[in-house]
Amino acid sequence: MSGFVSFVGSGPGDPELLTLKAVDRLQKADAVLFDDLSSGPILSHARADADLVGVGKRAGRPSPKQDHVSRLLVDYAKAGQQVVRLKSGDGGMFGRLEEELVALRAAGIDYEIIPGVPSAVAAAATAGIPLTRRLTARRVQFVTGHDVSGVLPDDLNLAALADPLATTVVFMGKRTFPMLVEALHRNGLPLDTPALLAESVSTPDQTLQRATIGELAEQLKSEVGKAPALILYGPLAAFDDD
Prior knowledge:
Elements: E1 4-9, H1 20-28, E2 31-34, E3 51-54, H2 66-78, E4 82-87, H3 97-107, E5 110-114, H4 119-127, E6 139-144, H5 158-161, E7 166-171, H6 177-186, E8 194-199, E9 207-212, H7 213-220, E10 229-233
Parallel strand pairs: 1-4, 1-5, 2-3, 2-4, 6-7
Antiparallel strand pairs: 7-10, 8-9, 8-10
């Protein structure tokens, strides 16, 4: 008898941001395959006898290949296990969810997807700003800061990303942000556009830094650090009452 896989979004790291459904699936799981950013206190909701398997991918660190992660999911489920694939933030947002779904479908294994609080939403909430704003930010856009080789993607829609009336959130983009800012400026976005660097969102190590895109780009040319981060820029990154 085949088991079942629950793809669970764990949110940005604070265990209090887990949904009730996420906690329920963790408590029932025979095996939990978790990302690095989903470890720590979040795993305290798993059963004491559950298999806990770290499969996270972090830039600059040895990481399991995606086909190995997918194979583990299939193998556990085929053994009749109730499996949780614990993904940071929301699994459908830059979380390589599709590759794992394809593997399960090919193996005939049933699954469900449980959304989590996206880290971008948590970062804005922590900073005390909304992501949208009447008249000045009618659109929100999320973009990855690097491709599979770790460099800035060469097919970005720069006209959209340079829209001064949009709130833009860059995931995994600290190393490539200086290059992105150069491209944005060439496409008309002023260097004094407000920006917010949010690192280790919702965890005890969280830091928030307000700057302009120009200032932040200069800083990140020499100071990148290892903390997971988001960069928000646009009319809301430096909130005021105007």
